[in-house]
Design a protein that fits this description.
This protein is α/β, with parallel strands linked by helices. It is about 40% helix and about 15% strand.
């Protein structure tokens, strides 16, 4: 138990030589200690070590209010919440205070009256750092009364006081967040007139309610989050308010697959029963993240809207569930994720991308299929030779045996829920497929070699070396020329094997 909690009165607090601080000084002092001790207070925030974190630390050291500016799914709210780790474990306040009055610097009528009447016997309560985080989502229906407060006529009548008396005020969320971290998410969505009401609070600590001027030097660390102002036409941050927010820190998406993988693995909610049943090779993790990377540069996806890191997280969860479902259907206790399981992520992708006009014309499912095919194409050359290279150079093409087998009127129809024995036998009957994988990957377990064999088929289809046709419950691979007779829009032209 923290020894401070034994202190029950203001007199005991003074006798203990307790030193009060503003919240910004708390954050600053504890950050200095963390930096000196090389302690990471922002755990789970991956990929910002050399970009966002230094800017955030500078802002805290400068005692600034902060605006985290970035597209959706860039950990803005998580960063704000984790700032509580830089607060003191407990702070004292005048018991019964609605606004967490510091007994050394009381600002409400209740606290001033208590200290005036009781002096050193004024009761003291303690506020834990986890209770010092207040969050408000900015929506168009938020009012000044919600954030700042309003006159309470019932309170005025009961106390027989005028509306001009501060005791008649019902405090809003911001005054009740005194000595706390106060976060407003999606600041541009707050109506301009509400943003204007924040001006004096940020600068001078003045509050105006129904024309009554009340001086409350509130002690608050403000953290705002916002998408870039040109994200939508819903609203923007009014210039004078932006001028009063001292530090604006720009967040970003992961710049490398490895960082994106680390985030997804960390955040995916996977029951132990699933992880015990489904083995996920690294190539699958790479492909999941590549889908997000492809979406962020796709001509069918609105770049201003952004593609959240939640796409990769949801897609991984769906992919593992797809493999789990296949194993359950086939009565298998163990399975390895397959390339075909990527098509089980379409539902996750659909909900995480905002399409431009061209994308809407194609439809979300087609765009999702296209992004998966693009991800396969992009990563294929990381594992096997670039098929394009052999079109230009006169050298032995390692894929000739495979494509010749298909050109000899053979095909392979891989069921999406194919049981293990059928999956293996179908892949192994393709001439040259096993030899190609063994040539580049000799020491892999059998299940991962099979996965790479399947990957080769999808990869060759993405480079127009084979024809891939999506049927209701399977993927049919045929020779390229059979595409002439294929009228399935999802698998021809823009959204086909290419």
């Amino acid at each position: 138990m923290n020894p401070l909690l034994k202190i029950k009165t203001f007199g005991e607090l003074k006798a203990a030589k307790y030193v009060t601080k503003t919240i910004k000084d708390e954050l600053r002092d504890n950050l200095i200690s963390a930096l000196k001790n090389k302690t990471n207070t922002f755990k789970g925030i991956v990929g910002y070590e050399k970009t966002v974190m230094p800017d955030l630390q500078r802002a805290i050291l400068s005692r600034h209010n902060i605006n985290l500016l970035g597209l959706r799914g860039q950990a803005k709210t998580r960063i704000a919440r984790q700032m509580t780790e830089l607060l003191d474990e407990y702070i004292p306040f005048v018991a019964g205070s609605e606004i967490n009055d510091d007994p050394f610097h009381p600002i409400s009528y209740h606290a001033r009256h208590q200290l005036e009447i009781l002096g050193d016997e004024t009761p003291i309560a303690w506020l834990h750092k986890n209770d010092r985080f207040v969050e408000k989502l900015a929506t168009p229906d938020v009012t000044v009364a919600d954030l700042i407060g309003d006159i309470d006529p019932i309170k005025a009548a009961n106390l027989k006081i005028s509306y001009a008396d501060e005791r008649a005020i019902h405090f809003g969320l911001i005054p009740r967040s005194n000595r706390c971290l106060f976060v407003i998410n999606e600041l541009p969505d707050l109506q301009a007139r509400i943003q204007v009401a924040l001006f004096n609070i940020l600068q001078e600590g003045d509050i105006q309610i129904r024309g009554f001027r009340l001086r409350l030097p509130l002690d608050i660390q403000f953290v705002f989050t916002a998408n870039p102002e040109d994200y939508t036409n819903r609203g923007s941050i009014v210039t004078p308010l932006k001028d009063r927010i001292q530090s604006q820190i720009v967040t970003h998406y992961p710049k490398e697959i490895a960082i994106a993988k680390a985030i997804t693995k960390q955040e995916a909610k996977l029951p132990k029963a699933q992880t015990d049943m489904v083995k996920v090779p690294e190539i699958i993790y790479d492909l999941i993240e590549q889908i997000s990377f492809e979406a962020r540069t796709s001509e069918f996806v609105d770049a201003k809207s952004g593609v959240s890191a939640r796409l990769g997280i949801s897609a991984l969860e769906n992919l593992i569930s797809s493999a789990e479902r296949r194993a359950l259907i086939n009565g298998e206790t163990k399975t390895t994720a397959r390339i075909s399981d990527l098509w089980g992520t379409v539902a996750a992708i659909n909900g995480k991308i905002e399409l431009v006009y061209e994308g809407e014309q194609e439809g979300p499912v087609n765009v999702a299929n296209f992004l998966i095919a693009k991800a396969i194409r992009s990563l294929f050359v990381n594992y096997f030779p670039d098929p394009e290279r052999f079109k230009r150079k006169k050298e032995t093409n390692p894929y000739d045996t495979i494509t010749n087998w298909f050109n000899s009127d053979h095909d392979i129809d891989l069921l999406l829920d194919e049981e293990k024995q059928g999956y293996e036998s179908k892949l192994k009957k393709v001439d040259g497929l096993k030899d190609l994988v063994n040539l580049y990957y000799k020491s892999l377990p059998e299940d991962e070699r099979l996965l790479l064999m399947e990957f080769v088929l999808y990869g060759l289809a993405s480079y127009s070396q084979l024809n891939r046709m999506a049927l209701d419950s399977s993927m049919l691979f045929k020779d390229l020329f059979s595409s002439v007779f294929n009228n399935d829009d999802d698998e021809t032209g823009k959204f086909g094997a290419n």
